Amino acid sequence: MKIIVATHNEGKLVEIRRILEERLGAGAADAELVSAGSLNLPDPVEDGVTFQENALLKARDVAARTGCPAIADDSGLIVDVMGNAPGILSARWAGRHGDDKANNALLLAQIADIPEASRTARFRCAAALVVPGAKREDDTAESAGKPYAITSETVEIGEMPGVLLHAPRGEHGFGYDPLFVPDDQPTRAVEAGVRLTSAEMEPAEKNAISHRGKALRALVPAVEALLRQ
After folding, report:
1. Cα–Cα distance, 51 to 117 (Å, whole number)
2. Long-range contact list for 47-52, CB < 8 A, 24+ apart?
3. Nearest-5° angle of CA 95, CA 96, CA 97?
4. Which one of the listed residues 30, 61, 74, 113 is annotated catalytic?
5. Domain count of the chain?
6. pLDDT digits (tens, 9 = 90+) for 132-173
7. For residue 139, what pLDDT is reported?
8. pLDDT of 102 strictly over 90
């Protein structure tokens, strides 16, 4: 079964495929993962006000356009003392989307005087699976390029709690990873008595504890049920 991942990041396909193989074994071969980017599908406007809403609207858009099941995720950083900001605005907190350096600098400035005990935060991810049905019969849907009706939707949430530093550390990862020390640490860090930022972890170490990994693993039963139909 072809399942389209609503992303232009081919790395997400690798992560989802690995998780399916971990959970489904040989059954994962029944899922052919394809990215929306490889199909030249447009990015929908992410105008939801929660991670769940944004994940669903991306998956709905792909499923309604293609008639294939779609997986999408949306994630960001939640800082407790900031009233759960930056939240869905994480990637454009400083004003320009994807400017990690500016986003990190602004966040550090905003919590500069916050004591260690109150610098708690967490990454949150919503992962959605949307399954389409038959083609719609109305001309409006056809002309909008979304001819397929939606028959089912599943959303799962994953979180990675931790604390924020006063200065960045590490060269791996992206976004706020250099500022964030997860509560869960890889074995090598525990054995050495140190605490690593997400940016100091190897990709496999981060993926094992990440919010996205948790959300996608929680979504696997819905994918498995779909493959059995």
Report:
1. 27
2. 48/74, 48/88, 49/88, 50/88, 50/126, 51/75, 51/76, 51/87, 51/88, 51/124, 51/125, 51/126, 51/157, 52/126, 52/128, 52/155, 52/157
3. 120
4. 74
5. 1
6. 998 887 756 565 788 999 999 999 999 999 999 999 999 988
7. 58
8. yes
Q: Are 19 and 220 in contact (CB under 8 A)?
A: yes
Residue recorded with tokens 């930022």: 197
pTM of the model: 0.92
139 catalytically annotated: no
| CA 43 – CA 37 distance, rounded (Å) | 9
Q: Can you give the CATH number for the domain in which 137 is found?
A: 3.90.950.10
95 annotated among ligand-binding-site residues: no
Question: What is the reported pLDDT for 136?
Answer: 80
Count CA atoms closer than 13 A to 28's CA, side-chain side. Answer: 17
Mean pLDDT along residues 101-118? 97
Domain of 133, in residue numbers: 2-228
Q: Is 11 annotated as a binding residue?
A: yes
* Residue 118 in marked binding region: no
Tell me whether residue 211 is annotated as binding.
yes
